[in-house]
Amino acid sequence: MLPPEAVSAFAAVFIVGMVWLRTRMQYSKRAPGARSLTAAGATYFAALGLLLVLGWFAAPALAHQVSTPVPVAPTLARVVWFLAVYYLFIPLHRVLRARGLAVFRSGED
To answer: In this prediction, what percent of the chain has a pLDDT beyond 90?
Structure first.
């Protein structure tokens, strides 16, 4: 069985992959070819990484303060934080696109 920290690390990497894939799929319909990150995209993924690292440390303490007298496992608190960050980045990407800020650009741009 994997140690709890490994499960949390796998969950974080999985979330980064899902955000990358979901965001990239939004641009695949436009023009074929290679894609690269824009400046807004680099900021978008830096913010994602920052929130995941913040959650690694803050989620267990926050869950301890918010929860009932029954202790919450740090792994569960981290995974819930990571999922919340994933769902936060869906509307964030929509806001960026509505403002004309692309996360990815095609090789032809």
So the answer is: 70
